[in-house]
Design goal:
By secondary structure, this protein is α/β, with parallel strands linked by helices. It is built from 8 helices and 13 strands. The strands form 2 sheets. The protein has an 11-stranded mixed beta sheet, sandwiched between helices. It has a two-stranded antiparallel ribbon with strand order 2-3. The longest helix has 18 residues. It starts with a strand and ends with a strand.
């Protein structure tokens, strides 16, 4: 048996924890992710981490947090469909300033692509012309949040999807480390929470381990094929959350289809 999950926000931007809105996952991470922290979301080939990261942002919008999504691998329309599956209208959220979309894909790789954002003239969108400069990437995040009056009563959530594109394009691990360290410092200063996805099996294990040591927590998303289910199962494991050793090894399972997440636990 499984249940389709509806997104429920905290309705309190000053809450100490940021929830995903997925009950079994929120329980696995100890009630939510701490504010002022940076988390690595590692995925293997065949796994789908994006829906869980978008659920984190969608729950933030429901909770009246400010959110940003930096994409290096997909256009806006891809995320738009996932947001809509959680009952959110991302184009409206762009207009209100609650959601900021940072396009590091369409223009960065000079592919002549368009993000197809109908609200392009209404703000809410930053574009990165050169993804090979991590400083420009961090600066785009900073600019996207200039309208937010930051403080202890303001909640901010972000997602970087994915760090793998930065790693492959930059070719200098020192710059990648600098980017990640800067992002973590800003999360501490602004009391924001950022999820950074990583295609873990596409990189040198030593590099992955070095990145893991720089963050506050690690979630691992893998694909399981179970003959009892028609669709693949996505398993999320808590690898590490600093200060919460009792959470390590907790696992929960989901399916993602037709724009919805089904909680199998």
């Amino acid at each position: 048996m499984y249940q389709i999950v509806d997104m429920l926000g905290d309705l309190n931007p000053t809450s100490s924890f940021c929830k995903f809105g997925l009950p079994s996952l929120d329980e696995a991470v100890g009630g939510g992710l701490a504010r002022g922290a940076t988390f690595l979301v590692e995925q293997t080939i065949g796994a789908e981490a994006d829906p869980f990261i978008v659920s984190f942002l969608a729950n933030g919008l429901q909770s009246m947090d400010y959110t940003y999504l930096l994409s290096t691998e997909q256009t806006f329309d891809y995320y738009k469909r996932i947001f809509q599956g959680f009952g959110r209208n991302p184009e409206m959220e762009l207009r209100t300033g609650r959601l900021q979309y940072i396009d590091a894909f369409s223009g960065s790789f000079q592919a002549g692509l368009s993000s197809m954002i109908s609200t392009a003239d209404a703000g809410g969108i930053e574009r990165i012309a050169d993804i090979t400069d991590p400083r420009e990437v961090n600066e785009a995040v900073r600019r996207s949040l200039l309208h937010v009056q930051k403080g202890p009563t303001v909640g901010i959530r972000g997602a970087v999807m994915s760090l793998s594109s930065v790693i492959h394009t930059v070719g200098d691990n020192k710059q990648v480390f600098s980017f990640l360290q800067n992002r973590r410092a800003m999360d501490k200063v602004e009391n924001s929470t950022t999820l950074i996805s990583l295609n873990a099996d596409a990189h040198d294990p030593i590099l992955v381990r070095a990145l893991e040591h720089m963050v506050d927590g690690i979630l691992h998303v893998s694909r399981l094929d179970d003959p009892s289910y028609e669709e693949p199962i996505q398993q999320i494991e808590v690898v590490m959350i600093k200060g919460r050793p009792e959470l390590s090894g907790r696992k929960t399972r989901f399916q993602f289809y037709s724009g919805r997440i089904a909680d199998l636990d």
